[in-house]
Amino acid sequence: MASSAKKTIVGKIHPDVLSFTVGKDPVLDLDLALWDCIGTAAHVTMLSHMKVDPAVLTSVERDKIVAGLIGVMHQVQAGKFSITETDQDVHLAVERRLTEGLGDLGRKVHTGRSRNDQVAVDIRLHMRDQILGLIEESAQLAQALVKFGKQHEKIPMVGRTHLQPAMPSSVALWSTAWAESLLDDLLMVEAAYTLNDRCPLGSAAGYGVPLPVDRQMTASLLGFSVPHHNVFHASNARGKDEAVVLAACGQIMLTLSRMAEDLILFSMPEFGYFVIPPELCTGSSIMPQKYNPDVLELIRAKAAIVMGYGATANSILKAMPGGYNRDLQDTKELYMEGMRVTRGSLRIMTLMAESLSVCPDRLRGGFSGGVFATDKALELVAGGMPFRDAYQYVRSNLDELDNADPDAALAAKTHLGGTAGLDFNGYKLRIKEVLHGTRLRRRGSERVLSKLLGTKFPLMNSFELLREKR
Quick check: 117 and 201 in contact, CB under 8 A? Predict the structure, then answer.
């Protein structure tokens, strides 16, 4: 068995054990490679300032390492960075690249660190970037829905409870309701962002190190508000952070799934309220006439998957003892896939909202006298009749409502949030504030990381790199 063991930077490991424990990290960790380099840049910058004699790193050595890290980052962006099974993960892959280029200097970068706090800070940097994207895309969908509602503000639509005709509503009320739901979902995303805004770097294996590391410095260098205070908690927070983000993603997916179900129903020929463009549908392999709302059906399925990821993350955590455990390797994949699915779903639903059309005649044709029953009962109450008497009268004389006017019913509800009381400017302002705040955060993060690296961040993309080489 010993002769078949594979050599890694942390010892020899049986090939089957190595393959099982490495899992998907060589693929998943490619998304963390840029962030691992940035975390390492902050760590070696702190080491170069650490008051010890002899110095762990000089400022000149620090600069050489950061230059090497920027070189690795360019390789990542150009698709020339890979993680081997014997690397095990992105951390050792980056360290190997640095050592190949810098020799013994590259072997110093792990001083005072564990892969535990490395992956924790990598995920938090990745998460900060992804959450900002999630907020932007949620706000953009809300923006498209508000625009759609404003365009069709005066078009009546039957409001339903239990899927049965209930009361007069409008396309605008329907559309802006989903926009407001997304904006409320962002309150949970904001909480996840705040929870994520803590730096675990310097906690090492969860118990600190006997070196005068400056954890406040590394937090500031990376643009985090504060470091985690308790180093053991910094270790324990891993996994829980992912679960909280997945919970926020789950709420967004719930909103998207319910809206998707509405669109599936209301675009059926039996309703015909909305028309989904053929290019956003798929066809049948046997039935030439079919245009299927597969996108919307997949949104429903993906909502269940993302909520399942959140439940799985919590289930992984619930029986874990304090301290690092390898179980946490799998919460990383849950978070990454959950975020990818949620952001992809937001983009596709924005495309749907921007392309959807309405059929006013079909919407008006959906009204029957009974839809106006509650409005009529309340009209009688306004004339002095007790509500229960009005209720019974209308119930017994529904035929009197056959010629009721849906436009008049919409215009009558002028109160806050009613069909004639929608604050479109308020929605627009709220969305504008969300997008503006997100842009400020992103610029602030980029400014801090550019200062750390001594070059503009984000780095040039691979196309720009190729053009520069020419």
Answer: yes
